[in-house]
Structure formats: C-alpha cells, structure tokens
Amino acid sequence: MTTGAMIEVSSEMMAVANEDKIGTAAAYQIGPVNIVNTLVTERGTDQSHLKAISNSGISIELV
Q1: Which of 11, 18, 19, 62 stands the most exposed, by the fewest C-beta atoms within 10 Å?
Q2: How far apart are alpha carbons 24 and 2 in whole angstroms?
C-alpha cells in the first residue's frame, strides 16, 4: 500500500517530529499539514511554533 493510499483510508493522522524539525521546511512532503490530527514532539519545542500549530486545529502531545 502506498503512503497516499494509507492516508486516504486513515481516520487519524499523527506526525512525530523533534524540536529541530518544527518550524523548518523539508525538501519533500508526504501530504498537506491539514491532514495531521496530532503532533507528537519534545517538551523543549519553541512555544510560539506550538501555539501556531495548535491554533490551526492540530492537537499537540509533548513527551
């Protein structure tokens, strides 16, 4: 099953990223950010980035 097919049949999408990745751009994209329901990241992540992500409707889990 391709990544796109998995996204289409998923009822929830989670993204996991450490604090070094939040607020940066990647050379590739798996899907648009609006498909993500929950972001799992580190407690030390910049609060301004987390607030912007939360304001877009994405739940944040800090570990």
Answers
A1: 11
A2: 25
Q: pTM (2 decimals)?
A: 0.85
Instruction: Please give the average pLDDT of every successive group of 10 residues along the chain, which has 63 residues.
Output: 86 94 87 92 96 96 97
Contacts of 45 (CB under 8 A, 6+ apart): 19, 22, 62
C-alpha 3/C-alpha 31 separation (Å) is 9
CB atoms under 10 Å from CB of 53, counted, come to 20
Both ends of the chain: CA-CA distance in Å?
A: 30
Identify whether the C-beta of residue 41 lies closer than 8 Å to the C-beta of residue 35. Answer: no
Distance CA 25, CA 10 (A): 24
